[in-house]
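Researcher: Can you fold this with S-adenosyl-L-homocysteine in place?
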Amino acid sequence: MVHLLKEMEDFAKKNKVPIMLQDGIEFLEQYIKDNNIKTILEIGTAIGYSAIRMCVNKNIRVVTIERDKQRYEEALENIKKASLENQISVIFEDALDVNIEEKFDLIFIDAAKSQYIKFFEKFEKNLNKDGSIISDNLNFHGLTHHKERIQNRNTRQLVNKINKYIEFLKENKQFKTTFYDIGDGIGVTRRV
Ligand code: SAH
Ligand code: MG
């Protein structure tokens, strides 16, 4: 398992797949253990790295969504190598087109940054009463707090979108979010 994870980390680096940073994924693993989380919905599988690591025990069930064919296939292969096919299901589709009835203890949002508000609004109905929504990449490599450093117009637009999402979370009356400066910036959101 350690070997497979190392292989995946090297692959991600080489192919520029934005998998979670070490301290971020460790935070997530600990959160799952501390809150006795059993069911997880992940938006953004990539190659299956975080899905595999979130399986901290045999009782965890992960449903994860990926819209990129190649990454989806790589994820399936890695999940097979990890022998976690019975714990992780991968859906190959755009998350905004997926319809899921099931409710989850944790929803982990780690996909296109421009769509975070849409993901949140679409999937909050899939969250158990005491569940948590965790959002990754809220710091966007430190750029959300330092807009003056941004040269590129697309990047600036993305940063604006993330800042809108952060505002959206802060203003949401039904949910309370705690922001952590861990990994690339993590938000933990729970119903009030
Ligand atoms: N959670 C992974 C990393 C995900 S990277 C890990 O830490 O290991 C983000 C992934 O989200 C990319 O592979 C991208 O193709 C996918 N993605 C982006 N927008 C999406 C959408 N609307 N629906 C499904 N997948 C999406
Ligand atoms: Mg991420």
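Model: Folded with S-adenosyl-L-homocysteine in place. Residues 18-20, 44, 46, 49-50, 65-68, 71, 94-96, 110-112, 115 surround S-adenosyl-L-homocysteine (ligand 1) (CB under 6 Å).
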